[in-house]
Every structure is written in structure tokens, then in C-alpha cells.
Amino acid sequence: MIRPTTPYARIAVVMVLAACTVLAFHVTSSVNSVTESGVNMVLPEQVGGFIGRDQPLSEGERFVLPKDTEIIKKGYMDASGNLINAQIVLSGAEKRSIHRPELCLPAQGWTINRRETIPVKLSDGSSLTVMRNTISRQIEVSPGVTRPLTGLYCYWFVGKGITTSSHVTRVFLTSWDRIVHHKNHRWAYVVVYAPVLEGFQLGGKDVGATQGMISDFISGMVPTVIKPTGDKAGELKN
């Protein structure tokens, strides 16, 4: 590493660094702090055979998340007793509203057994990539008797005209688009979760059937939730 050897050289280096700092601040601060989101903050009343009911926020959500965070949650059930939970978390001006669920799931008592990205085919022929966490925890099925319950927790992030299943990609795009394109994504975090009820109820679905049910649900939900970009079908950036 070359070091400045004279006081004038050191001053010049400091001035260059200061100029770079001011320029970076000017570029990033010229972006509006709150921009239009890529989602509609509404969950459909019905998706296929599933009927939804609003769910209240937990005390933890009320306490931890910034006040300008928007959250909507619904629990869905069909005539066979299959269950699906869906929620959307939309960030405000403060970006810590959005985080990786891998941080909060263990705090809620879940063990993450597997993480993988999977494609979900949408009704318009396009494909949405989601992150799927296969999770489990012990639940009490009778006094003093517990059994492991498996769940499939699928999520993705939505910016204005873009989706990604990767937290790392989301962070990179936040910085890149803010500095290069003067575009500030107001990110939303969309979750669809279902328990695997095989062995817990008569006719309960196994893992494969549960994932098929979730994929069909996401396909039916997306047109309501994600705002169209004006592009041709199948060209939503992912």
C-alpha cells in the first residue's frame, strides 16, 4: 500500500476522501426516502377453495417492528380442513422492517431442517422463485405426549417491478438501484406457510402434496398481491 509521504499529500488524500463521501451522500440522499411499493397491501378473501380470515398482529410484531411498518395477515382453510397462513410485511422509511425469517423462526421455537429455492408457475405462464424453509417443532397432541410437526414456510421479497427469494440479492439491489438508478425499493416480504398434516388428521397431506397446495395458492394469490409492471406476461424481473 502506498502511503502519503508529505503533509500536502496527506491533505490531498483527505480532501479526495471527503469529496467522495459528499458525492455518495448527495447521490443517495437525492432518492426519496419512501417510494411506491411493488405490492397491493391486501390479501384476497378467497383463493381457490380456501376462505381467509384476518389475523391480529402478535405482541412481538407490535413491539419490535418500526411504527411505519405495514402488516396484513390471513389464515385460510378449505372444506377438507387444510390450512394455509399468508402475510405481507411492507417496510416504511426505516428498513429494518424487513429481515430474513431464518433469524426469527428459531426464536419462535422452530428448527430449520432445510432451505432451498423452488420455482412456482403462475397463471400467466411466468415463474416466481421462492425460498422454502422446511421447519419442524414439537407440539403436544395429548397431555404429556408430543410429536414433531413439519411445516413448509415459503417466502420472497418484492420491490417495485422486481422479486427475489434471496436476502443477499435484495440488499445488493437496494444499494445498486439507489446509487446507480436513484431508485429506492420499498421492499415487501411475502410469506405463505402450511403445516404438513399427514398423521395429524384424516386424509392429511404429505410434504409433496402440501407443497403442491402451497404452489397453487401462490399462483392464485399473486395477481392480487403483486402490482403489474406493464411488461409482457412472464417478464417480471426475478
Task: Give an account of the 3D structure.
By secondary structure, the protein is α+β, with helices and mostly antiparallel strands. The protein folds into two domains: 1-30; 34-225, no CATH class. Helices cover 28% and strands 32% of the residues. It has five helices and nine strands. It has helices at 7-29, 59-64, 101-104, 167-180, 207-225, and strands at residues 46-47, 50-54, 70-77, 83-90, 111-121, 127-142, 145-159, 162-164, 188-195. Strands 1, 2, 3, 4, 5, 6, 7, 8 and 9 form a nine-stranded antiparallel beta sheet that branches. Strand 6 (127-142) and strand 7 form a beta hairpin. The protein is globular. The model is unreliable at 13-33 and 230-237 (pLDDT under 50).
| Number of DSSP E strands | 9
Low-confidence segments, given as residue ranges, are 13-33, 230-237
Report the end-to-end length measured between terminal Cα atoms.
Answer: 40 Å
**Oligomerization status of the protein chains:** single chain
Give average pLDDT, whole number.
Answer: 81
Fold blueprint:
Elements: H1 7-29, E1 46-47, E2 50-54, H2 59-64, E3 70-77, E4 83-90, H3 101-104, E5 111-121, E6 127-142, E7 145-159, E8 162-164, H4 167-180, E9 188-195, H5 207-225
Antiparallel strand pairs: 1-2, 2-3, 3-4, 4-9, 5-6, 6-7, 7-8, 7-9
Task: Please tag this protein with its features.
238 residues, alpha+beta, 2 domains, 9 strands, globular
Summed up:
This protein is α+β, with helices and mostly antiparallel strands. 28% of the residues lie in helices and 32% in strands.
